[in-house]
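Key result, reporting period 2: structure in, sequence out.
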């Protein structure tokens, strides 16, 4: 079964989805597809994690510190301190950023190619909607997830570039 249909079938058991208008259903489906691709990008980063402490682990410390209520500056200070304790400097982390962006760009290209040639474009076979509509919707959701994910990573690196370890 195609990904789009799997997500749609999962939503069909959600009473809020069942009782929603067509526009609300489309929005919920778009959100579900977006969240799926956001998780996929997160998994891509984990799968391509470089050995040792790198930007992936730095980002995890940053995210956890922010989730605990620390400011972005404090979170970067904490993660940068941990990285330097492990012998990984700021320039290495910034170089890792280029590696991960390249990995995401390659994954994006593979997905965009697949969406046009694989089962993703065939999801409408049992519906009144055209396969092209499903492919376009999936591509739009993927692109939103991709842009959001990469912009957040870029933000972390931009903060990192302008940070030093606080000595006080």
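The corresponding designed sequence is given below.
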């Amino acid at each position: 079964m195609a990904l789009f249909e799997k997500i749609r079938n999962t939503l069909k058991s959600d009473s809020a989805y069942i009782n929603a208008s067509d526009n609300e259903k489309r929005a919920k489906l778009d959100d579900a597809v977006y969240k799926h691709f956001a998780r996929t990008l997160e998994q891509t980063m984990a799968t391509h994690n470089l050995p040792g402490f790198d930007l992936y682990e730095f980002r995890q410390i940053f995210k956890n510190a922010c989730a605990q209520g620390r400011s972005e500056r404090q979170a970067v200070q904490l993660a940068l301190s941990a990285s330097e304790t492990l012998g990984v400097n700021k320039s290495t982390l910034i170089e890792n950023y280029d590696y991960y962006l390249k990995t995401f760009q390659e994954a994006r290209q593979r997905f965009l190619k697949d969406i046009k040639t694989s089962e993703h474009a065939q999801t409408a076979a049992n519906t009144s909607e055209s396969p092209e509509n499903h492919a376009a919707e999936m591509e739009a959701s993927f692109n939103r997830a991709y842009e959001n994910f990469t912009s957040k990573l870029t933000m972390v690196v931009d903060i990192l570039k302008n940070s030093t370890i606080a000595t006080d």
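The CA atoms of residues 59 and 141 lie 24 Å apart. The chain has one domain: 3-161. This case is discussed further under Risks and Mitigation.
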